[in-house]
């Protein structure tokens, strides 16, 4: 009863073979990867992420392709520019496989091929430019490299997303020369700005002096005009006084002449007394004449008052 017959052993073997066959045909592909399937060494189709079935012992997994965006580091290398300057350059490349079958069977060692293609094109693109362009137009270099390398890798089922130049290192002596050149340029700009400042200062100063001279001339012109007007008025008053004196003399009144002469004499003595260098005032011998003239002036004024009173009395009587 405890013995297993040959028929049972055969049945168990068949079941085990079926289980092994089914398990061998089940393939699980992780997210971000794709597997190529080969049948007797020839590519047939691609397994997508998830659970997939193949024919065991006939189909097999060929390549496991990473479909995620990948980073490829470009090692440092020497590049000779168009103006014969030797520099060291390194960078990075970002790429993504879009077609697993092409990336597997169109090129051998995909990453190595992309790396060597990038190095070659870096030397080609940067070797056609001057050093100043390399240092100032890094974005243009990245765009050119991306366009060239992406076109070259398109048959491989690869899409380049970015190409970035990390470091551009010129030789030490060239760096020192560039530093001296930059310092000279800054000194030149500083000298130009300083000269421009002096120029503007001189212009403003000249404008200020010009305006001051104009205002001064206008002030002197106004003062001369007013002085001339004052002299004209004084001359008119002098002429009027002379006329009055002449009329009084013509009428026989000599006291008017004495008044005129005495006034001039007194004005001269006043000016002499007010002189800054005058310490002692010497009165001339003719001072008695001056006093007599003053007495004449007083008599003349008295007579005028009397005549005015006589004229006023008849008027008052007429009113009464």
Calculate the mean pLDDT score and round it.
80
Biggest beta sheet attributes: 3 strands, antiparallel
- Number of strand elements: 8
Strand and helix order = HEEEEEEEHHHHEHHH
Straight-line distance between termini:
190 Å
How big is the Rg? Answer: 62 Å
List strands and helices in order, with pairings.
Blueprint: H1 6-25, E1 26-29, E2 33-39, E3 42-47, E4 50-53, E5 59-66, E6 70-80, E7 86-97, H2 100-105, H3 110-127, H4 131-136, H5 138-153, E8 158-169, H6 172-250, H7 255-273, H8 287-319
Antiparallel strand pairs: 1-4, 2-3, 2-5, 6-7, 7-8
Describe the overall structure.
- By secondary structure, this protein is an alpha+beta fold.
- It contains eight helices and eight strands.
- A three-stranded antiparallel β-sheet has the order 3-2-5. The protein has a three-stranded antiparallel β-sheet with strand order 6-7-8. It has a two-stranded antiparallel sheet with strand order 1-4.
- Helix 6 (172-250) packs antiparallel against helix 7 and helix 7 (255-273) crosses helix 8 (287-319).
- The longest helix is centred in the middle third of the chain and has 79 residues, at 172-250.
- The relative contact order is 0.06.
- Mean pLDDT is 80; it is low at 311-320.
């Amino acid at each position: 009863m405890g013995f297993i017959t040959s028929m049972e052993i055969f049945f168990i073997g068949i079941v085990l073979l079926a289980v092994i066959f089914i398990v061998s045909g089940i393939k699980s592909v992780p997210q971000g990867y794709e597997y190529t399937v080969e049948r007797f060494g020839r590519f047939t189709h691609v397994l997508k992420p998830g659970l997939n079935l193949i024919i065991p012992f006939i189909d097999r997994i060929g390549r496991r392709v990473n479909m995620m965006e990948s980073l490829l580091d470009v090692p440092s290398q020497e590049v000779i520019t168009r103006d014969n300057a030797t520099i060291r350059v390194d960078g990075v490349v970002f790429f993504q496989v879009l077609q697993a079958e092409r990336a597997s069977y169109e090129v051998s060692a995909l990453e190595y091929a992309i790396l060597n293609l990038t190095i070659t094109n870096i030397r080609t693109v940067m070797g056609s430019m001057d050093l100043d362009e390399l240092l100032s137009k890094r974005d243009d270099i990245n765009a050119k490299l991306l366009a060239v390398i992406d076109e070259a890798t398109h048959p491989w089922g690869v899409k380049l997303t970015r190409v970035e130049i990390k470091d551009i290192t010129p030789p030490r002596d060239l760096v020192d020369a560039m530093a001296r050149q930059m310092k000279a340029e800054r000194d030149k700009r500083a000298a130009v700005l300083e000269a421009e400042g002096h120029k503007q200062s001189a212009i403003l100063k000249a404008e200020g002096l010009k305006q001051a001279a104009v205002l001064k001339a206008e002030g002197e012109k106004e003062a001369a005009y007013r002085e001339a007007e004052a002299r004209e008025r004084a001359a008119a008053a002098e002429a009027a006084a002379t006329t009055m004196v002449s009329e009084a003399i013509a009428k026989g009144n000599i006291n008017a002449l004495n008044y005129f002469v005495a006034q001039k004499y007194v004005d001269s003595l006043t000016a002499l007394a007010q002189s800054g260098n005058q310490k002692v005032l010497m009165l001339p011998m003719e001072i008695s004449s001056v006093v007599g003239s003053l007495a004449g002036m007083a008599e003349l004024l008295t007579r005028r008052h009397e005549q005015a009173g006589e004229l006023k009395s008849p008027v008052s009587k007429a009113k009464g």
